[in-house]
Structures are given as structure tokens and as C-alpha cells.
Amino acid sequence: MRIVLCLLLLAVFLPAVNSCRQATRAPASEQATAAGQDNAVPEGFVPLFNGIDLTGWEVRQPDNRDWQVVDGVIDCNPHEAPGDRNLWTAGSYGDFELLVDWRIKESPYINRGAKIILPDGTYRKNESGGDVLIEVPNTDSGIFLRGRHKSQVNIWCWPVGSGEVWGYRTDPALSPEVHAGVTPKVRADRPVGQWNTFHIIMKADRLSVTLNDRLVLDNAPLPGVPAEGPIALQHHGDRKDGEWGASLLQFRNIFIKQLSPQPSQ
């Protein structure tokens, strides 16, 4: 009799447990959104990434093998191939504030020709007058502003830290003041594998970058920067030791606040 009673209780109880589990599990799309956009939208900002798919973004090559949404984040699995393989916003932006979480997933390759960048944007020299070369993890990506590679906020493993603007720092036609302005004041990167947050402010031809709550660029001039343009996440497909590393990165929580009229679509 006791056995029969136990079986009857189980017959009633187990369906209820399974029903609760099904009711409390969010749909896959909602789980992806929660994983990719795990912060509330900051006041005045709008999301550029929905945490589910690449709506609002475009790749300029038809054979996109590099950019996917994985577990609610934008994942770059880069391959070497010709053409522009960066991930671009569909919209074009002028003056704005941009929030972006990013992390280097891994860095299995080595750059043995990296350099030590001094506060004025020049390189440390050895006794013979040549650049001091060091070994760093070979990972490289960044965020293009206003449609140009030159106005790229760099993400890499060099000692100077992320936030540097290579295209302006290395342009010999520009002044020492410009070179120094786009050189990070402090290295604020977290270790490989951990998430970082950029707060980028682009206003007129001036750029400020905060990384993990530390100011790395302060109102740096970018002479000749376009008035507006799309934003891009940079692709590097070099899966090898060398000068430019593979962009083995992920991005999430991408929000923008416009400081100028509506972007063109």
C-alpha cells in the first residue's frame, strides 16, 4: 500500500516540477539578450547591438566567416582573406559618446617586434639609436571612428596600452602635439581574457577615451577627421607570429549617445 501511495505522489509531483522548470527557463533569444546586454541601457544612450544578431551592422564582403553572435556577444573568429572584413555600423555618426565592452579571448601568437612608446608618441631608442624591440602577445583590433582606419582607437597588448590612435601618432606630417595627444597617458588594460570598457567621446575633431574608468586620451586633436561616418570593429586575420596579430576579440554592451543631429542611415 505504501509503495502504491508513493507512486501516486510521484506521478502528481514530477509533472509539476518539470512544468516549473519549463516556465522559468527564458526563450533562447531572451537568454542571448541577457548574456550580450547584461547592463541596463545608460540614460540618453541607445544600443547598437541587440545581443541576438548583427542587425544594424554590415560586413562589406559577401563571405562573412569572421563575425558571429556567440552566447550573446559579438565574436570575431578572424580569417585571412582579401577586402574590407571589418564589421561596420549601418548608421553614420558625427559627435557622440560610445560605450563598448571588449575582451581579448586569447593571444596564442607572439609579436617580437613591438616597441616601447614614450609619452610624446616616439619610440624608446637603444644605445645605437635604433628602436628598442620587445616581445608581446600578438593580438590587434580596434574601433574605427567616423569611417576611417586612421581614426582608430587601438586594442592591443603593447606596453603603452589600448586607446592609442596609430594613424595619427605615426603620421610624420602632423605636429608633436598631435602625436603626444593620441598616446595613452596610462595603461589601463585588464589581463587577456577579462572584459574591458571603453568610454569614447568624439566631438568636432577632438577625441577623449576612458578605459576601465581611467582617462587615457584627453581631448586629443584629430586634424582632418571627417565630420561623420560609420563606426567599425576592426578585423585582423593574421593567425601567426608577426607584426599584426589576429583580432581574437569579443564585444558586448555597445551603446551610443548622439551629441549632434540624427545620423544619416
Q: Calculate the mean pLDDT score and round it.
A: 85
Q: What are the low-pLDDT stretches, counting only 5+ consecutive residues below 50?
A: 1-35
Number of structural domains: 2
Strand-and-helix sequence, N→C?
HHEEEEEEEEEEHHEEEEE
SS-based class: alpha+beta
**Level of helix content?**
10-25%
Biggest beta-sheet profile: 8 strands, antiparallel
CATH class of the largest domain: Mainly Beta
Description:
The chain has 265 residues and is α+β, with helices and mostly antiparallel strands. The protein folds into 2 domains: 1-27; 37-258, Exo-inulinase, domain 1 (Jelly Rolls), CATH 2.60.120. It is built from 4 helices and 15 strands. It has helices at 2-24, 28-36, 166-169, 176-181; strands spanning 46-47, 57-59, 67-70, 73-76, 87-89, 96-104, 110-115, 133-137, 140-145, 148-156, 196-203, 206-211, 214-221, 232-233, 249-258. Strand 9 and strand 10 (148-156) form a beta hairpin. It is globular. The termini are far apart. The relative contact order is 0.22. Residues 1-35 have low confidence and may be disordered.
Search tags:
265 residues, alpha+beta, 2 domains, 8-stranded antiparallel sheet, 15 strands, disordered N terminus
Give the secondary structure arrangement, pairings included:
Layout: H1 2-24, H2 28-36, E1 46-47, E2 57-59, E3 67-70, E4 73-76, E5 87-89, E6 96-104, E7 110-115, E8 133-137, E9 140-145, E10 148-156, H3 166-169, H4 176-181, E11 196-203, E12 206-211, E13 214-221, E14 232-233, E15 249-258
